[in-house]
What we know:
alpha+beta, twelve-stranded antiparallel beta sheet, four-stranded antiparallel beta sheet
Amino acid sequence: MDTILLLSIFLVFITALVGGYLQRRRRDKVLADLQDFHAVTRMRDNSKIWGRIEVYANGLELLYAKPFQNHRGNLTTSYIMFRNSIEQVLAIYRFHTELSPENQQRRWKEIEQTRNPGAFRIALRHTGNFLNTFRDAINESMGMLLTRMKGTSSMSMLQSQDERLKKFGTEALGAVGNAYDPIMERHIGKQVVVELQTGADDKEEYTGLLREYSQAWLSVFDCRINEETRLPLGDELRLSLQRDLDFWIKLERSEDAPSGLSLSLRLESFSEQVIRCKKIVGEGYCYTLNTEIRKGETREWVLNDIPETLLAVVNRDSLPVEGMLIAPERRAGEKMVTQDIEQHLPDLFLVMESERQVDVFLPRTSAVLRHASSPVRVEY
């Protein structure tokens, strides 16, 4: 068989193989920072989804801490968003106080690498920017090389595959290149103010460290925002991930409660910020708290008025049940949950508000880099 023909077949096979691999592995470089982190996804209708994020080339999957029954009665364990669904995302928040110690270290490493990139990271970024800037020129050079190679009739197979080869070149460049933006590039690793359009006439601002950008997304790390949070009291994992609060929960029989059951909740604060505990809510139920808790302080409430509709899921034969949900670094060998409270607690949520440290991931369709926030030296 003609050597050139064999070479052509080999070249087409290799390009198809490598091109397919690159397409499967190519994830948005901004969203890639969310891999295996717990985060809150805020949708455009202002609903929020909390879970551990898996990032794919064609979308995201949020893995719930425990199975969840949707409004149709179906049991679900994750929320999947393909590219068209991702367009409905308004923002993704990664709160520092909701990360495990290992992931907190990963996060701090990302921030340090952004502030003080090493020589290798700088060189790698410059290379990616160079390839992206001259992508068209490189593609044209590839086309000219293929045209030159097609000069002989023995290259007829290669002639029919030149578009495939050029496509591979484009995909390869896209995988290593960057959606180069000279203004964004100048502010990488510096304090900026990003403006987010949340409605026709509504805007929010986020001040922090510009971590990364892509064609579709940008990320701002180490922001400070006032955030209202709804914590599910029956979610063992999420409560135990809170570094600002430790929880003690007890559900028991009570003669003082019309339903015959009472729920006790005690909170201890470890936060440097004041936490405003607003209320405890459930379907058709609201228990007003309206109290503040500071570092080192403890608050305790006893709920005797929980309606029967919320308590229908409780197995009364298993009572009392109680649990301590404590951050791992503060457990000191204690068992986090003394009983399996997840299976016994009604669907109640603690609504609270505080200033929190957060990394924000924003779609560029709604967010724009509006101001530099780092001190600059002006030459006169």
